[in-house]
Design goal:
The protein is an alpha+beta fold and 568 residues long. It contains 20 helices and 14 strands.
Length: 568
């Protein structure tokens, strides 16, 4: 062991920190093993491990990093999707469950033919073993540019296809376990708490904040526009407030807080962001080190326990937000602003890349809504235990204030078209270049030098963009929207002309799901004109909800009445 410690000593003394380097190594290994289907044969792994142990005193530290990288590739390769085999009956093991706002159980189940996404009207719980009659189906990839590709999402989770379970007769056999009974108890507790909170005017909001239950889609959409949707999903912030509330309970020691946090993490859905907060709390209590080192250790533990979390949006958002806070930890200014600014700057590029939406005022809104969420969580917890009327009045006032603030912030939301992963990487690189690790700002000369470099890089990027747009040819895209059609003629510099706008139904918006994402993905900043071939719903359905529709001057109906004018 002394030889091994001596060999690892250069790694432990790295300026970047040991655990951040371990996390980067494991992340790259899992991504390589999962995305590129690269797995190191077991016998080569064992040979390398034996050589590293036997020659611990003489081998360079690079060999240990190589061994760690190979181990991570094997973890990632275990979550490859298996080619789908069609059977009439399947034996399934329920791995995890999510319940949507319509009380549909979304389960990830494991069978001898791979993992599947099971949608069930019948309550299911993790740990159950089922034998069911159902059909497994492959998910077709997205056909339109910018459209959310559900097939790719499932593939990243190692899921081969989908199943449905709608009736009791489909279940041939069902066996419960101790694990499933535990989760069933948790879900019953959560439903009981939700029922009590729903007596209040904004009870659905309090249930989402405290218990992690799903919200109505309209409320969630307003929060996304306001840039405050992270408050409505139980994450590290909520776990932190719960830890503070637990420490305020008299006559209870730190072990009770730990048990309570583990129970709370399971109660609210056992998401990566929640477990990241729980492990971060434990490490912060045990080890006095840099926040970035504790974060890297926490993320490493999560990836070792569940490698597929690397491809989970919950894990990615949580890791980026916490990294932003950790980078600003040494800076000496107002703590709430430091937390809000750090999380905002690191999450912003990823959010623009995924959602194509920005709201600068959300940075200020988070400073106000963050403490408000903590107060509402505390009062909601007290109301669950003792439902006093005056507590209900206070909660309704705070909930109405929260919703009014979100409605006001949502007015300042705007779309950003054409933002891609390369621009996100450039943003992060420039932010990290300006970042410094000291408690005070660097000397003015160094700071001005960095600002000039950033400005020059931005000017080069803008020059490259306009140069590429000037030589970019006119492009024509055909979109399939339900049973309707739409065509986009993309012109240089983000201008465009549209022919028809697709279809819509009472439950499906073609403009929201296909047309608008395509416009943002293609970098279209303006729709000059819309030509409608005729007035049927399958060709005009997306006009009212189309992006930039308020800026369209005139649309022409070109068939069958060529000379008629249709004004939007």
């Amino acid at each position: 062991m002394k030889k091994l410690s001596k060999s690892l000593n250069p790694i432990l003394q790295s300026n970047y920190g040991f655990w951040p380097l371990v996390f980067v190594c494991i992340t790259l290994g899992i991504a390589l093993g999962k995305v590129f289907a690269v797995a190191i044969p077991s016998f080569l792994f064992l040979i390398l491990a034996f050589v590293c142990y036997y020659y611990a005193a003489t081998l360079p530290s690079f060999c240990y990093w190589l061994l760690l990288f190979f181990t991570a590739t094997m973890l990632g390769a275990n979550y490859q999707t298996i080619p789908l085999e069609i059977k009439k009956e399947y034996s399934l093991y329920v791995e995890e469950i999510k319940i949507d706002a319509n009380l549909i159980y979304k389960a990830v189940v494991l069978s001898e033919f791979g993992r599947f996404r099971l949608s069930s009207d019948i309550p299911l719980y993790p740990g159950e073993i089922l034998k069911v009659r159902t059909n497994a189906r492959e998910v077709n990839p997205a056909k339109n540019p910018g459209e959310f590709c559900y097939a790719t999402y499932l593939k990243n989770q190692g899921i081969s296809g989908t199943m449905t379970l709608n009736s009791d007769w489909q279940i041939i056999a069902r066996k419960k376990s101790l694990k499933s009974r535990f989760w069933e108890l948790l879900y019953k507790i959560r439903e009981k708490g939700k029922e009590r909170l729903l007596d209040l005017e904004q009870g659905e909001l309090y249930s989402a904040l405290l218990l992690g239950t799903p919200l109505d889609e309209e409320i969630a959409e307003i929060a996304r526009e306001a840039g405050t949707s992270h408050f409505l999903v139980v994450s590290g912030l909520h776990v932190g407030y719960m830890a503070i509330l637990a420490t305020k309970i008299p006559f209870l020691g730190p072990y009770f807080t730990i048990i309570l946090l583990f129970f709370y993490a399971c109660l609210v859905g056992s998401t990566p962001s929640v477990w990241r907060a729980v492990f971060s709390y434990l490490l912060a209590k045990r080890y006095a080190s840099r926040m970035i080192d504790r974060l890297a250790l926490t993320l490493t533990i999560l990836l070792v326990l569940n490698p597929k979390w690397l491809f989970s949006p919950s894990f990615q958002y949580s890791a980026l937000a916490t990294l932003g806070i950790a980078l600003l930890e040494p800076w000496d200014f107002w703590a709430p602003l430091k937390v809000s600014l750090g999380a905002f700057m690191m999450v912003l590029p990823y959010s623009l890349w995924q959602n194509k939406r920005m709201n600068f005022l959300s940075l200020v809104g988070n400073l106000f809504l963050g403490p408000l969420v903590g107060i509402m969580m505390g009062l909601s917890l007290v109301y669950l235990v003792c439902p006093l009327s005056y507590l209900g009045v206070a909660l309704d006032f705070l909930g109405s204030l929260f919703m009014l603030t979100n409605n006001y912030l949502s007015r300042f939301s705007f779309f950003v078209s054409g933002f891609n992963w390369l621009q996100a990487v450039i943003f992060w690189a420039l932010w990290l270049y300006l970042w410094h690790e000291e408690r005070i700002l660097p000397n003015k000369r160094l700071f001005l030098k960095r600002v000039v470099v950033v400005i020059l890089v931005l000017l080069v990027f803008l020059f490259s963009y306009y140069t590429m747009e000037s030589v970019r040819p006119v492009e024509l895209y055909f979109l399939q929207i339900l049973d309707g059609d739409a065509s986009i003629l993309r012109l240089p510099y983000g201008d465009s002309i549209m022919i028809d706008t697709g279809s819509k139904t009472d439950t499906y918006s073609g403009a929201k799901n296909i047309l608008n994402p395509a416009l943002l993905y293609l970098g279209i900043k303006n729709v000059d004109t819309v030509y409608l071939s005729h007035r049927h719903q399958d060709h005009t359905g997306g006009l009212d909800e189309m992006l930039y529709c308020d800026k369209i001057k005139v649309g022409y109906e070109i068939w069958p009445l060529r000379d008629s004018l249709f004004k939007k």
